[in-house]
Automatic annotation (TrEMBL), chain A:
InterPro entries to which the protein is assigned, alphabetical: ABC_transporter_permease, MetI-like, MetI-like_sf
Topology versus the membrane: Multi-pass membrane protein
Protein name: Carbohydrate ABC transporter membrane protein 1, CUT1 family (TC 3.A.1.1.-)
GO biological processes: transmembrane transport
From TrEMBL, chain B:
This protein's record includes keyword Membrane: yes
Residues that span the membrane, as ranges: 21-40, 93-115, 122-139, 151-174, 195-218, 262-284
GO CC annotations, alphabetized: plasma membrane
Name of the molecule in the record: Glucose/mannose transport system permease protein
InterPro entries referenced in this protein's UniProt entry, alphabetically: MetI-like, MetI-like_sf
SUPFAM superfamilies for this protein: MetI-like (SSF161098)
Family label: Belongs to the binding-protein-dependent transport system permease family.
Gene3D superfamilies, sorted: MetI-like
UniProt domain ABC transmembrane type-1: residue ranges: 87-279
Subcellular location: Cell membrane
Lineage, opening ranks: Bacteria, Pseudomonadati, Pseudomonadota, Alphaproteobacteria, Hyphomicrobiales
Membrane-topology descriptor: Multi-pass membrane protein
Keyword set, alphabetical order: Membrane, Transmembrane, Transmembrane helix, Transport
TrEMBL record, chain C:
Gene Ontology cellular component terms for the protein in this record: ATP-binding cassette (ABC) transporter complex, substrate-binding subunit-containing
An annotated GO BP: carbohydrate transport
Organism classification: Bacteria, Pseudomonadati, Pseudomonadota, Alphaproteobacteria, Hyphomicrobiales
Keyword terms of this UniProt record: ATP-binding, Nucleotide-binding, Sugar transport, Transport
Name of the molecule in the record: Multiple sugar transport system ATP-binding protein
PROSITE patterns reported for this sequence: ABC_TRANSPORTER_1, ABC_TRANSPORTER_2
GO molecular function, one term: ATP hydrolysis activity
Domain ABC transporter per the UniProt entry, residue ranges: 4-235
Main location (coarse class): membrane
Amino acid sequence: MAIVSIPNAVATSERPAKSRRINRTRLPAALALLPTALIVLVVYIGCMLWTVRLSFTSSTLLPKLDWVGFAQYSRLFMNDRFLVSAENILIFGVLFISGCLILGFLLAVFIDQNVRAEGVFRTIFLYPYSMSFVVTGVAWQWFLNPGLGLEKLVRDMGFESFTFDWLVNQQMAIYTIVIAGLWHGAGLTMAILLAGLRGVDAELWKASRIDGIPVWRVYLSIVLPLLRPMVVTATVLLAVGVVKLYDLVVAMTLGGPGIATEVPAKFVMDHLFERNNIALGTAAATVMLITVVAILAPWVYAKYIRPQGRPA
Amino acid sequence: MTTVIPQGSRPRRLTAGRIGIYAFLITAALFFTLPLWIMIVTSLKPMDEIRLGNILAWPANLTFDAWVKAWSSACTGLECNGISVGFWNSVRILIPSVILSIAAGAINGYALSLWRVRGANLLFGILLLGAFIPYQVFLYPLVRIFSTTGIYNSLLCIIIVHVIFGLPTMTLLFRNYYTGLPIELFKAARIDGGGFWTIFFRVMLPMSTPMIVVAAILQVTGIWNDFIFGLTFAGRENLPMTVQLNNIVHSTQGERAYNVDMAATMLAALVPLVVYFVSGRWFVRGIAAGAVKG
Amino acid sequence: MSAVSVRDISVAFETVRVFNGLSLDFEAGEFIVLLGPSGCGKSTLLNAIAGLMDISEGQIWIGGQNVTWEEPKDRGIAMVFQSYALYPRMSVRENMSFGLKMAKTPKPEIEKRVKQAAELLQITHLLDRRPDQLSGGQRQRVAIGRALVRDAAVFLFDEPLSNLDAQLRNELRVEIKRLHARLGKTTMIYVTHDQIEAMTLADRIVVMKDQLIQQVGSPSEIYHRPANMFVAGFVGSPQMNFIKGRIEDTGSGPIFVSGQRRLPLHGYTFTSTPTSNQDVVLGVRPEHLRIVELGAWPEFSVDVVEPMGADTVIWCRDREGSLQVRTSGDIRLSPGEQLNLGIDAAQVSLFAADSGERL
């Protein structure tokens, strides 16, 4: 014991002198960061742990600090509403992300063809992104409403038997949310990818013209691989948006018809603030947290951890 | 028959490919503009025309009644004072939140990029990860904290929440910006004897106008469009416009007045749309800056 | 028949039109360097020949064909770029064979050509690497290799060495010259702002400025008989000395006079007859000024001495102004010393003071 404590004593006796000198000039900087540090500690870490802790209790209207193990989680995964939510977010996530990437890439490529009124097109494709999900949801709810919207429009044009009732159809309602989401988010993907396209070395294009490579082939074989960082960035941004999906559903369908368009974020909100089931709500929130970590982990690994090991 | 000698500029033919490009772009443009067009025309029609007429058609009897009603007398739940209440609530939330979150981001970014404070990287790392965590994870404990301190359901409460959750993006934005400035500038200011705050206010802040504009665009649209925080923290007296819009649309009393709904929607979309159209390329820059998260 | 012929071309940009009917012929097997400062139009001309930039008037002929409206790939050209422009996610082999693959060349033929080009450029061991695993010099070799496999009659180089450091630049410069000799009948058009590259590589140099051709000629002509003051000043380092003065006719032939300095001009080959008392500028290269015991131009004092190893540049001045003299590396002089300069009228250039054109 005594032997071990000697180096420790040396270390502690040397360190204060050194750090005191450093701290005197950096003290204001440290003080300036203090509020943020507190917020990170209390909100970002503290609240997160609190939520996780609550998910292991039997809290209903008011928080309790008992311990019921994984009881809430087994209830959660037996809960129809939650299972529908999980399935919906999966459908929405896959379609929304792939849809935004494909549509966004196409829009970016087509805009990049030296077209007239490029600025007008760019402005039109991106403006939905500036508006809230509530506005987006309300607008699409109105447009897709079968009685007076698109369905009536087509019927009035003479196609009497045309039906487009996805908004009120249990099976299809989630896809209307995907459409509204695409409308809102495809422009963002376009903007990110277009910035990438504009960054491609002009001499690469010249070289490929000399080599006689068809334009579509250049995009696919040469440019798209170059855009990989932008595609990854866009995907991560979109994925985060997917997990947070809430306002759009509330504004557009309120989770209906029935529970057809419930999503996890809404499940959590409802159980925390309306259904007085804090433990189940926090359990669902914890599941969301784990999902996000699972999505982010490979990205963080690829971006920050692997490159240090060997060149990518 | 004469053959044309190739001379001068290449003849520009309108090839099938070019037509295809424009066809695609115009179709896409229609998809993106259609909802906005429908919102506008619907808001300008009386209800009869909406029920019978074509949803795409320009109003036959153009009227601004719906806009007036949406602004001043539409029912948001039990009260019927229109969405103007929400508009002013949003303004009162927006201004302090934007100013405070930009100030916090600038100071954080400056301290993190130019002053080597121990643990700063860890702090920044957690903050960035925090940006990706769904808000639902923080909400309930935050509500408890605010209830205990007695500021829950107040203007102050919602402003604090916006500042807290604006921290990651704002800090990142300014940190990246200050990191990109020539470090010699900072060194010269240190040699001239500037301290932390002197250098910040005299040297760094005056150079930050572009980032402040970008940050303002991001925050104004972000905070104006917020729904979940307003719903959870603002309290009944201070509900922002998005929440009130949702209440109007989903109000169960009487027949749905689509023209009023659409007018209210347009009113709620107005501020971000104006920001978008006025800022133009800056908006894209803001997205790009926000998009390099991590 | 010229290998490449540019006939009366103009290029229209959004607001300006350049060249205004520029014509230029390139002979088969020739190595031509387009030389000029940035913005002089040399790259625009090269891009127009390649078909990467549309011309608004005139014609471009390559190999006896009018290719004015042809796609770049159909012009029988190959091109090497400053930024290498290698396809980033493809291996060296894929980079070199991509164009041939697109042209539906049979596989064995592609392999043969890639192999030959790789051997010629000594990059066989790099064939399976990716561009980001190569050094700058290796990348440019690959880019040249990609051009080689196209088997083109005309090679276009757009500042290919400008991204490389000095050592590599010298190495590859020699390599390109060797390549040109090995290929025999290949025409090479090479754009650069570096006069050393131009002098060492070119059979003929085309000096350009402000989208206009200033002079076309062999490196020796460009250097020794520059057509105007711009060419004289742009080519050569240290720069040519310019001395303002006037021509006087003393009866025994024209004499250049600049204050105390006088130079009888017999031995100078006039391209046009000067008028007496015409204002002129005398150009003399630093190495054509000699330090002599009893010289035509006395009473210079040494200002600065710059030893450069093989030779020494001496800045000296008299009442009229400062001149640079290039002399052998072993000379010993220190600032303040007096010296006399000798000058040979056969080695100078005379320019009209108003137009800057050679007299």
